[in-house]
Amino acid sequence: MAHTPERDFIRHVVFFSAKDKQDVDRIMAGLEMLKNVPGARHFEVRKNLRADRFSDDVDIVLYSEFDDEDALKAYHAHPIYQECISVVRPLRDLRIAADF
């Protein structure tokens, strides 16, 4: 396995599933609000392609990049982030986040 050099930023990846599959677009719209939070060097929200034959649990993937932990903490503390939670949380089932 090839060694990958350390990156000088944090990747923030969050997987979501909708309680009701008809709400996927509403969840995505709520998550898109986060692109207005300053501090992310990259931000995107995409529907899962469902290409993996072993797992069909994830509907939406949020991927973002931050310069450091302070930038990620500021993102989570921003009022738009809190507003997003109020929109998305009632519609979602699964939420799994990873930062590396």
> What percent of residues adopt helix (DSSP H or I)?
25-40%
Indicate the radius of gyration in whole angstroms: 14 Å
Give the helix tally.
Answer: 3
What structural class is derived from the secondary structure elements? alpha+beta
Task: Give the strand tally.
Answer: 4
**Proportion in β-strands:** 25-35%
User: How are strands sequenced across the largest beta sheet?
Assistant: 2-3-1-4
Element-by-element helix/strand order: EHEEHHE
Work out the oligomeric state of the chains in this entry.
single chain
Uncertain runs with pLDDT below 50, 5 residues or more?
none
Q: Indicate the mean pLDDT.
A: 94
The biggest beta sheet reads: 4 strands, antiparallel
User: End-to-end distance, in Å?
Assistant: 19 Å
Shape: globular
Essential attributes:
4 strands; alpha+beta
Could you give the topology of this structure?
Blueprint: E1 10-18, H1 24-32, E2 40-47, E3 60-66, H2 69-77, H3 79-88, E4 92-99
Antiparallel strand pairs: 1-3, 1-4, 2-3
